[in-house]
Amino acid sequence: MKYLNGIESSEIIEEVGDLTTQLAQIAPKDTVVSDNTYNAAWITGTWTADNTTDTLICSVDHGLVAGNPVSFGAGTGALPAGIAAEPDFYYVESAPTTKTIKIKATYNGAALNITDDGTTGWQIRFAYVSAPGQSLDFSLYSEVDIYSNFEFIPLGSTGTGYPFIRIAPNTTRILLNHANAYANAYEVGLLPTTTKKYVKLPTHINIRKIATALYHIQIHVAGLYSDNLNMSTPTAYTGYYSGTVSVADITAVTLVEAYTSRVKNGARYVVVRR
Known about the structure:
Elements: H1 9-26, E1 31-38, E2 47-50, E3 55-58, E4 69-73, E5 90-97, E6 100-104, E7 123-126, E8 128-129, E9 133-135, E10 143-154, E11 163-170, E12 173-177, E13 186-190, E14 198-211, E15 214-226, E16 235-246, E17 252-256, E18 261-264, E19 267-273
Parallel strand pairs: 12-17
Antiparallel strand pairs: 1-19, 2-3, 3-6, 4-5, 4-7, 5-6, 8-18, 9-17, 10-14, 10-18, 10-19, 11-12, 11-13, 14-15, 15-16
C-alpha cells in the first residue's frame, strides 16, 4: 500500500521498528521495562457437577490427570458447594474418564465431598503456569532490577532440603526454581525441614552485565512458608545471594517448575532498567 507521498507502508513499519529499538536504548534509567502477570487459561467446555458421586464433568476432553493442581472460578455461574474460588486450589484426585474428574484438597488427601451441583457457568484451569519467564535484552541495557512475587505449589509430601531459590545458569537463561534438580547452581536458603512447603516468595533480583558472558547477580528473598494450604501458620524467611555468574549472554529470567513444585497462577514480574 502506498501513501500520497509515495512511501510504502512496509517502509513505515520498518522505520517504526527501528525507532522502538532506539527509544529503548536511550530510555531513562529507572524506567519500568515490563510488568507482567501470568495465569493459565481456563479449560474450554462446559462444566457440571454430580454431588451424589463427587464428580465434576466436562463437555469436552479436559486433559487433566491425577495429581494436577487445579483452581476454580465462578464465571457466569455458581461453584458447587464445597469448592472455593481462586486463590484456593485443589489437586485432581482421579480422572475416571477423559471428561470427568474428582478433586482433593491436599496432594495426599481423599476425594472432596461436594454437597450440591452449583450452577453451570463455573470454570476450571490448571492452578499453575508453566515456566513463566521475563525476556531481557542486555544489548539495550546493562543492568536491571526484577521484582517478582510468586507462590510455589508443592507436589508430594516429603523431600530433603529444597532451596527457596536456586540460581541455575542454563545456556542463555537464569533459572529460578524450588528444587535441587540443577547442577552448578547458587542457592538462596534451604527449607528448614524435610517436607515440601507452601511458599509465598516476593523476590528482588539485580542483574548487572560486567562483560561478555559475565554477570553480577544479587537476590533478596523475603517470604513465608507453611505446611498448611491456607498459610494459616506461616513462618517468615529471608535470604540473600550475591556473586558473579559466568554464563552465555542472558536473554531471560525464568521461574522453573520442577518435579517438586509448580508456579502458582498470579506470578508477577516487574522489570526496571537501571
